[in-house]
Amino acid sequence: MTDIVGYDLDGDIGIITLDNPPVNALGHELRAGIVAALDTALADKGAEAIVIRAAGRTFPAGADIREFGRPPQDPWLPEVCNRIEAATKPVVAALHGTALGGGFELALAAHFRIAAADAVVGLPEVKLGLLPGAGGTQRAPRLCGGRHALDLMLSARPVPARKALEIGLLDEVAEDDLYHAALALARKAANGGLPPRPTRERRRGFADPVAYEQAVREWREKLANSPLPAPGRIVDCVEAALLLPFEAGLEFERAAFEELMNSPQSAALRHVFLAERRAAKQPELKQAEPRPINRVGVIGSGLMGSGIAVTMLDAGLPVTLIERDQESLQAGISRIETIYARAAARGRLDEQEAGLRLARLSGAPDPGALGDADLVIEAVPEDMEMKKAVLAAAGRATRPGTILATNTSYLDVNALQVSVPRPENLIGLHFFSPAHVMKLLEIVVARQTAPDVVATAFALARRIGKVPVRAGVGDGFIGNRVLTAWRQAADEMLEEGATPCQIDAAMREFGFRLGPYQVLDLAGLDISWARRKRLASTRDPEERYVEIGDMMCELGWFGQKAGKGYYLYDSGDRRGRENPDMLALLDELRAARGISPRHFPADEIRNRCLAAMANQGARLVEEEIARCPGDVDVVMVHGFGFPRWRGGPMQAADAWGLLQVRKQLQEMAEGNPKFWTPAPLLNELIKNGMKFASLNG
Ligand code: 3HC
Fold first, then answer.
1. Cα distance between residue 94 and residue 112, in whole Å
2. Average of per-residue pLDDT across 536-550
3. Could you give all domains of the chain from N- to C-terminal order, each with its CATH number?
4. Using one digit for the tens of pLDDT, what is the confidence trace for 84-98?
5. Would the CB of 100 count as within 6 Å of ligand 1?
6. Does 105 sit in the ligand 1 pocket, CB within 6 Å?
7. Is there a smaller number of Cβ atoms within 10 Å at the N or the C end of the chain?
8. Which atom from ligand 1 is nearest to the alpha carbon of 57?
9. To 10 degrees, the CA torsion angle through 532, 535, 538, 539?
């Protein structure tokens, strides 16, 4: 057969084995191989029935996402599925690992499905802005009914084998040996013990059409305001499964799939999927072995330190917490206990498990307790001298191979390396608050950081379930720099006539859950004020500086915690309402600057913000602080709530058109040239007819 599809005879059963690592994605070669192997098996007089199984870690996890957007090549996956279903000998699909998307659709087209007990199955296409396009929307409801099928496709959550058996998607779960159980099932089918059953002819899922239609209606209502087309089209297809003949349903599904494949939302979601995986790949991972990490030390147990400790405990790593005195240590431990108590109260974790995780926590008021730590993360306040002292002490207290990490948001990690005895062991691990919730981890590689330390940081990120992105050293790394640019653009509009409500509403309409001023109020305005004061002496006098944030802080308007910030918060209210004093303050500021306010339409607000973010992203790539535009996107999606379906600022800029972005920047450049002048990289891309995506490799 081919290199990636094998065919053997085991007794009287033909065995087709798919072997396309890492996840058996159903690319063209695999699809062609399956069709050829199926023909061979059908022609093989010795084969009474056929088993399709996979080698390696999983049954196919889907169509090959890298082929999307390119001209389709025969045979298409729907065609492969139809061929399997039409086979004149019984076909058994033997599933292990993660049988997802097109992989599970392949199985749905087989006559029988058996799965390993630890396998999961699912139809997660909606996460890519798509729908199951190889018959899944038509076959799954025939087996499990409308409600389960809609849950499966719209939640995108994989279902464990036993649950899939219970709802009718599987015929058997193999308790021990999947291969032999699949052989037995195939033999039983071959001997007439089981009738041949093309899924298209099954009616089990249509047994209660009233409940089916009710599920369709409920989902349709729930999705009425979704900005994404895919969920609604999934509902349409599942409804069509009940109403149309099978072939017509398949055609309906195909048309909807193609429409979605060409949608900007799907392009953006596919981009983020691939960008996340690219971001996790580092040259160091090829050159160097990660160091083993069996115990972690965390210095500082404030909001950040305790969140980091919880992240490590959740991943099964014992943690030693270090504080400056017993009282602070106790406060830190209490913070961690509270996080677990809340998780248990909300049913996210049972109390026994919470207790087990807490039992892995120890603490001491002295870095001397860090002797057996393999990694020490400092999370003390953002003060260069304090961080230097803490890291130097940690360096003295630990073994030569221990990795030291600084959780700084802005400080120069090259400068911090100077303070430790073994600078090659120091790296930046920038967690985002709350650290046990936020997925992003910026891994800051400083001048002297050793390759195996970088490799360890990426391996750790995977272990603790974070999305890692490599960042070079530079004020604010990737995320905070883009954020600062976004806020600058927004502040300029405030000064020129917009209100915080208008700006936030425009960004929410774009897809953010919260606008920039809502986030500032939530985080506390004093935090960025302290930083501005610290950097005041280094501020470039040529850059436009909007004073509104400083004016508010001088009045003690620190945001939600003070009951007053960009919004007013009545007691217990977290949503806030327009703050009239803030509007008066803005009028004062505008008058002092001689600015006559004007109205800003929502699209202008969005365009200015997006242009500022993308231009800053381009500078980060030029300065090699971000390796590629895709990394900037991953940071903004996972750390700053940029809507995933917009793909991040660089992808959104590509979709808008780089010429348009440049035009917007140039329009702004007169008022604040240093900030708004288009990055040279942007001009270069335009000149060469390229996009940011062209640099993602
Ligand atoms: N196509 C191409 N490559 C894929 C892929 C796919 N569907 N799924 C995973 N990969 C690749 C990844 O890019 C990565 O490649 P790399 O090693 O070169 O970086 C490698 O497989 C391993 O992936 P992960 O790092 O994500 O490994 P995990 O073990 O963490 O997760 C997984 C495995 C659960 C399978 C996860 O990769 C996943 O969720 N994949 C996507 C599943 C999916 O969405 N399937 C539907 C696709 S659309 C479809 O099928 C359309 C059809 O209806 C017509």
1. 9
2. 90
3. 5-262 (3.90.226.10), 293-471 (3.40.50.720), 479-695 (1.10.1040.50)
4. 999 999 999 999 999
5. yes
6. yes
7. C
8. 29
9. -10
